[in-house]
Amino acid sequence: MSYIKLDNIFVSGIDNISRAQSLRELFVKKKGTLIPNNITILDDLSFHANLGDRIGILGLNGSGKTSLLKVIVGTYPPQKGEVNISGSICSSLGMGTLITELSGRDNIKLAFAYRNNLSQYSKEIENKIIEFSELGEFIDKPMMNYSSGMMARFAFSSVIFQKADILLLDEVFATGDASFIDKAKKHMTHHWENTDIGIFVSHDLSQISELCKTCYIFSNGKNYAYGETKEMISLYEKEILNR
User: Fold this and answer.
1) Would you call 155 helix, strand, or coil by DSSP?
2) Domain count across the chain
3) How distant, in Å, are the alpha carbons of 18, 225, 232 from that of 143?
4) What is the full DSSP assignment across 182-220?
5) Crossing angle, helix 178-193 and helix 148-160, to 10 degrees?
6) What is the pLDDT of residues 65-124, one digit of tens each?
7) Cβ atoms within 10 A of the Cβ of 81, count?
8) Distance separating alpha carbons of residues 76 and 74, to the nearest angstrom
9) Neighbouring C-beta atoms of residue 36, cutoff 10 Å
10) What is the number of other CB atoms lying within 10 angstroms of the CB of residue 59?
11) pTM assigned to the model
């Protein structure tokens, strides 16, 4: 049975904004020292999901939403806390691992390999991804030449044709042309409804409302609230967005 149990998770990392300021002072103003500036990313955060759950994650930028997904997929090992997960995982994370000097076609197999789903790869699936992405002849061109919309289409298409027990989606409809987004939403709805557990991170409250039964609200790396989606959206709008 698929489940996710994260208990008392603590993750810290580099504060890139403060580090950039340290670099500026060191090299431009010729003073100061370079300080890593570690910050708390997730602070004593617990998160549980069980078979049939469709969970939305709400929070401002920097609240820990994407970091949660990175803990689930294993790219953010926590310094403290317990992680127990049962089930295969497919996520929209990991586009940074693709090799942009290679073509989209070459990167399709890499997308499967990165998510430990290489056994699912086949030429038939590759052709479905290419057709769905609508990249046409660009599929054989280096991905460094892709626009942000083309990258978004590739990212979504490479994920949606992979089968897994747990589906993690992070702002999958943030970019892309309207016609593709409409098609992608229809396809994702079927995929979303037929996975054991779905977790959706988005700033689009209408999408969260449509797709998710319950929601977590994150604030400053902590659980702020959890409950039914309608109630959580109302709380989020009143107490987080309007701060």
Assistant:
1) helix
2) 1
3) 32, 40, 39
4) HHHHHHHHHHHHTSSEEEEE-S-HHHHHHH-SEEEEEET
5) 20
6) 999 999 998 888 899 999 999 999 888 775 556 788 999 999 998 888 877 788 899 999
7) 16
8) 5
9) 11
10) 23
11) 0.81
